[in-house]
Every structure is written in C-alpha cells, then in structure tokens.
C-alpha cells in the first residue's frame, strides 16, 4: 500500500500484526533498493519502505535538509503508522540516519540492522569530495554525476552479470531531482559523529558488509560492531556496497535469523 506521510511517499507490505521492519535507503537511491527484501520478508514481517525527503517521489521542497530532519521524518512515519518497536534497517546514508535515530531514542526500536555504513561523520577530505560532487551536478548535470558515482557502489561482478538491472538502477537515480540529490549531500556532510554513542547502544544490532565494499569496507564495519555490546557482524559474499541488491538471498536470511534470535531472547 502506498501512502503519503509528511509529504513523503511510504509503502507498506504484509500483515500489520507481524513484527515491523522499517527500511531506510542509501544515496542516491530510493525505496526500490529494498524490493527483494520486501518481496521475501513481507510473508512474515510488516515491511515499511519510503523515499527519503528530496529523493525518489518524496517532496523536494527547497533542498535544505539535515540529518536531524531526516530522523524527524523517520519518527513521524513510525508514529503515523503506529509501529510498535520496529526493527530498523538502514544502508549507508540510511545507516547514518539509523545511527542518529537510535542516538535520539533507541528504546523506540527492537533492534537495528546496519548495512554497508559507518558511525563516523565526514572528514574534511570527504566534505571536499562532496563539494566537488555538488559542483559536478551544477556544471555537468545529474546524469554525469550518476554515471561516475553509481559504479563505485556496485561490485564489478554485479555490474557485468546483472547489467540490465544495474542499468535500470542507474536510470532510476537519474530521475531524482538535482536539488534533492545536492540537499542529501549537504545533509550527509553536516551530520554529527555517532561513534561516541556506540558504547551506549543497548539494543541488538546486526552489521552487514559486502566483501567488496570499498566505501565502507568490512574492516571498518567490523571495528564499529566490536564497540557495540550486543552486536553481530557478517560479511556479505559476492557483494560491493549495495549488499541488499547484490546478494539479496544472503541479506534476507541474515535479517530473518537476526529477528528470530531477538524474538527468542525476549
Ligand atoms: C550511500 O550509499 O548512501 C552513500 O554512498 C553514502 C555516502 O556517500 O556517504
């Protein structure tokens, strides 16, 4: 079912009586990146996906976003649908948002799945890279940015073996508003560092990282997971930065097992 909450498009699938999972997509993608998870997991879970403000079909507005506003949007969706302790699942930018959301109120969640992400905020070097990306969009257009950025997210194997799907994903990214994409870059570069909060996390967490992820490599994610009390870390085989798309079977099973374990220990 599609609905609009806070001018954001939100999709739900499955039985609302089941444990809810709310999925937060990465940059510059939209809710569609979770299609394989929703297809599989909605049999036993209530799955919620949405387009982050400024991306996909959600409101673009003036393009002035912060991670704080993204987090407010997430809580607004949870409250409006009436989700009780959903499991949160965020990839990369969606993971930054998830770290911030649990820092604000971890008791709102039963657990968190972090996919291909990190707790650290942007270094000065990364801020300058983001400034260049904004310049590239201004000077050469969004298509040029998408053509140079998206290949860095997927493993070479995925790009060649699943070329049709990969090209579809790139085309979808190009339909975003350039204002929304630039707004997301600024929201990411101005976010706070969640690393000091890691040792205060007291809900179960699962950390999934593609074996070929160059943006948030397994060594980095494993180190982050090791600073959290109740955490599990898994390397997703045959996958780059977009593990839920590149190896959905692995990710779906990992999510299912993680939630089952949480339910058994409750
Ligand atoms: C993402 O996948 O969400 C982005 O690569 C995150 C980033 O640019 O830091």
Our estimate of the beta-strand percent is 15-25%
Protein structure class:
alpha/beta
Outline type: globular
Unreliable parts: none
Largest pleated sheet: 8 strands, mixed
* Ligands: D-malate
Measured distance between first and last alpha carbons: 30 Å
- According to DSSP, the number of beta strands is 8
Question: How would you portray this structure in words?
Answer:
With 266 residues, the protein is α/β, with parallel strands linked by helices. The protein has one domain: Rossmann fold (3-Layer(aba) Sandwich), CATH 3.40.50.1820. It has an 8-stranded mixed sheet with strand order 1-2-4-3-5-6-7-8, with helices on both faces. A hairpin with a 2-residue loop joins strand 1 and strand 2. Helix 1 crosses helix 11, helix 4 packs across helix 5 and helix 4 packs antiparallel against helix 8. It starts with a strand and ends with a helix. D-malate binds next to loops.
């Amino acid at each position: 079912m599609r609905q609009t909450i806070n001018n954001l498009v939100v999709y739900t699938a499955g039985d609302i009586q089941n444990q809810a999972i709310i999925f937060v997509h990465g940059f510059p993608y939209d809710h569609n990146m979770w299609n394989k998870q929703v297809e599989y997991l909605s049999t036993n879970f209530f799955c919620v996906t949405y387009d982050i403000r400024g991306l996909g079909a959600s409101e673009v507005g003036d393009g002035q976003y912060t991670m704080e506003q993204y987090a407010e949007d997430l809580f607004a969706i949870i409250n409006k649908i009436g989700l009780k302790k959903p499991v949160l699942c965020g990839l990369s930018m969606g993971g930054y948002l998830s770290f911030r959301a649990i820092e604000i109120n971890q008791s709102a969640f039963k657990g968190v799945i972090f996919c291909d992400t990190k707790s650290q905020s942007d270094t000065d070097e990364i801020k300058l890279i983001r400034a260049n990306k904004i310049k590239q969009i201004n000077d050469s257009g969004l298509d040029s940015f998408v053509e140079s950025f998206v290949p860095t997210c997927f493993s070479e194997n995925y790009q060649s073996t699943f070329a049709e799907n990969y090209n579809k994903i790139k085309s979808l990214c190009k339909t975003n508003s350039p204002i929304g994409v630039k707004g997301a870059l600024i929201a990411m570069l101005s976010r706070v560092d969640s690393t000091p909060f890691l040792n205060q996390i007291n809900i179960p967490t699962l950390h999934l990282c593609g074996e070929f992820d160059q943006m948030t490599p397994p060594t980095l994610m494993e180190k982050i997971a090791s600073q959290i009390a109740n955490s599990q870390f898994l390397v997703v085989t045959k996958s780059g930065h977009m593990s839920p798309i590149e190896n959905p079977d692995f990710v779906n099973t990992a999510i299912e097992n993680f939630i089952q374990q949480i339910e058994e220990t409750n």
